[in-house]
Amino acid sequence: MAKRKSLAADPELDSDGEDASERSLVDVDFDFFDPHPDVDYLALKRLATQLFQGDAELLHVNDLADLILSQPLVGTTVKCDGRESDPYAVLTVLNMQVHQNHPSIKALTEYALAKSSADPAFHGALQNLLDPASSSHVGFVFSERLINMPVQVMPHMYRMLTDEIQWALDDNEPYNFTHLLVMSRIYRLSPEEEAELQGPAPRSKRQKQIAQQPSSGGVYPFHPEDEQIQKIALHSLDYNFTNTKPREENGFGLDMGGRMMLVPAARLRELVSILQNAYPPPS
């Protein structure tokens, strides 16, 4: 049975051009479902492509979607129109040791090692953890959602994931992780673009949303919860996508990149509490 939760959709994420102050919040019922092989495959591929952008083909997103759907008792999708509708968000975890020979995990391991080479400490940690002979078990956390999904769904999703991992362990399933590898997305703004956002001129709703998000040297997370995950991460690294064209001067669009974070699995339940405090449901 689905678990239902009502949240207020964020009008800042609308695209109709109206100022957010002139609109009221809209209550939306979100249903939380297990991944469903018969209905979620195409949507999971789209979300994986959104997550990895131009590098998606390198990471075998077709096989990745299949692997996610092969373990429907761990992981959650969020839908608004019943089980048969497309998910708006997904959160799950895959054991990179158990599935080390699966095409998507093999490609993901090579990708993570290549991108982490810019940070020797991070790279060395991943090399040791992802070595086929290692006794450690790294869980790849796959988390992605549509842009208009409020961050308030994430504490609930992470809480359910934590519970499902424990239930799987109680059944002797291979989810006894030592570490979690979280992969996410960032975008970069030039100093001129940041100055424009902070200036007195009227801004669009999307610009206001960007201006309110945490920034580090012009780098912004697509997922606000990344800031909370970084607080407990052993390592965090922002990187450039391999297959992307540099944005031309005065060009449209965002200068996008990826982010990797390595988290001790023992702190997952602590992360749930952090997220619940940071992103409580609207009153």
TrEMBL record:
InterPro entries to which the protein is assigned, alphabetical: BCP1_family (IPR025602)
Main location: nucleus
Pfam families for this protein: BCCIP
Keywords on record: Nucleus, Protein transport, Transport
Intracellular or extracellular location(s): Nucleus
Stretches the record annotates as Disordered: 1-20, 194-222
Transmembrane segments: none
Function noted in UniProt: Involved in nuclear export, actin cytoskeleton organization and vesicular transport.
Similarity comment text for this entry: Belongs to the BCP1 family.
Name of the featured protein: Protein BCP1
Organism: Rhodofomes roseus
